[in-house]
Structures are given as structure tokens and as C-alpha cells.
Design goal:
six-stranded parallel β-sheet
Amino acid sequence: MRVLIITTPVSTHFAPLVPLAWALRGAGHEVLVAGQPDVVDAARASGLSGHVVGEAFHAGELMALGLPDGLRPIQAAGRPGPPAFAGAVRPWTAHTRYTVGGYLEFARHWRPDLVLADRLEYGALIVGGALGVPVVQHRWGVDPVGEVAWAAGARSLRGVCERAGLAGGLPRPDLVLDPCPPGFQDPSLTPGQPIRFVPNNGSGTLPDWALEPCEGRRVCVSLGRLTLAMNGMGLLRSIVGAFEGLDGVEGVVTVDDAYADAVGEVPGNVRVVPPVPLDLVLDGCAAVVHHGGSGTQLTATAFGLPQVVLPGHLDTFVVGDRVAACGAGVTVDDAAAQDDSAAVREAIRAVLDDPRYELGARRLRAAMETQPTPADTVGRLEALARDRTLRRAAA
């Protein structure tokens, strides 16, 4: 079976698909990633082969462009409502108009048996519909935009679909895979096919500090790739300052080299380190402080760790809500509180000292471990492709 992966040009949208891609490879199937250099570079870094279609997109830079000077998204716009989520989808419908022709041309030459995609890549749905092959979408975690996205695409891409020979409009995915543990996903969504989250934080080197014993409890701070680029240094300094006075606690703060000098002086119990794949270091941690990114949240869940979520934009707020609702941590979703080291300190102290949060985190990990693995899911995808081939032959 030939599996073509097409995702939006954002590495964090692509990353959840990697364990499934490797499971497909391990089962003997061909897997190829087609996309703009942003995602093809991420594919290469994960050990997968790719084909470049189009120019680099630089999604992170584009997201930061509209922010007022010095303000984070939460400071500029507060907590997002439904209009904000609808607005977040619109750039991807426009993006599809410029990219789908290249995807279609390549796919007709490569002839996949199945297309695998994230929830915002409309081009994958159009390619699958035009070629008559099934399309499987993979949620990257809590998914407040996926179903909004399909409805928006169906309205605005009707002409694109007709030109691709799809008179019925934008096809729906044949299957939606959901890596959220049972009970964690937004309960208002249509249930997807469960698939166990396998941490995929990129490749790296296990640092020496992670092997050193910690006096007390270690707390990892990770703000993802975009938070600092979106005027997030003030938030980072607030978090670093929160460790002052937390006796018996060591803070390990991952910061890209480009921002390390701007952190300034840090308390004696804080270690600032370059970014490292979280799955290499969380085993020695007692809690995680993060920005609400699904990859970070699910990785912390896989290690059974309580979490402090400091959301900043769009779905990160929903991630924080779900962590709190499941009793696996707390969310600080007010800009003023996020900028108050004392408030962040209290949140960290709560998840470390109140055993209910550790119990909630362990329950969530146990729920995650009941889900079928990516290897278990391969048979479902094989059946999808086989059934579609039989239907085409009978038509």
C-alpha cells in the first residue's frame, strides 16, 4: 500500500502523524510526505522521505505578524471565542487555493492508495476525492477547529472542488483518528477512532543533566516553538521568577539559543537549557509547566505528570480547560495572573503538593494506555484502502 501524507506546513501539525507513519513502514507499506519545505524538512528530520511541493510557508512568522508590539495574543485579544476559531481557519482555505494544484499533479503521478492528513489540510481531502482513495485525518489533540474547518472549507472551496471534478463539493474524511485519552477530548465533538499517543518530540541527545539526581522535585518548563516568537519573553520571565522560594524544587527551563540571553538572571534553583525532546527528560520530572500545546500536553500525560497550563492563543485555552476538568492539573488563563510570578508559583505549588493532581494525571495516563497503538491501527487503514479498491473495481 502506498500512503501519501499531506499536512499543513506546520511541524507541530505534522508531528502527531509520525508514529503512525513508522508503524505503516514497519508493516511493509510505502510512506511519502508531500508538502512545502516546512513540513518536508520536518519529515526528513523524523527519518521519513518527502517530496517538496511549493515554497516555504513560515507559518510561525505569519502568526506573529499581526500582534501589537510587545503583546502576547492573550494580552491583545483575551480568551478567544467562536469567531476567533472561525477566523483561524480562513487562512488555510486561502492556502489550499494556491497549493492543491501542485498536490493533485504530484498525487496523480505517484498514485497513492490512501492519504493521511491533519485536520486543516483541505488539499488532502480534494486529492483523495479526485483520485478516489480514502483520506484519514489525524487530530493533533483537543480539536476545537476540526469540524468548524470542514464546514468553512465546504462553503469557500466549492469552486476549487468543482474544478477538481468533485461536483459534490468538499469530501469528508473517511476516518478521523483521535489521540486524546478517553474522557479528555472536547465532549461536543463527533467521536473519532482512538489511537494511542506516542510521544514524538523530534530526535535529540539525552543531556547529562537529565541523568543527574535532583535534590527534591524537578519541574520542566516548555513553551513550545511559537510562544517566545509571539512576544512571550515576559511570560517566560514570570515563570522563571515563580521558582524563587520554591524550596526543594528544581526548575528546568528549555529555551532556544536565540532567546537564552534575554532570560536574564535566574534563581539558584533554575537551570536554563537548550530545547530537548521532552520524552528524553520527563521521566525524572514531577510536573510540567507549558503553554497548552497539544504535543506537550499529551507527552506530559504519557508520563503521568500533573501540569500547569498557561494558554496564550486559540486551542491552548481548550487544552488548559480539559487538563483542569480531568483533574490532571491547573490552568492559569488570565494574562495578569500569568504575568504575576506569585500566582504562577502558587499554581506550581498546588500541582506538586496536592496529591489529587498526581492521581488525576495517573488516571489520564492509564486511560491513554487503553487505546490501540499506531501498530494496532494499521490494519484499519489497510482495510479502508482495500475496500475502496474493491469498490472501484466493481464500478
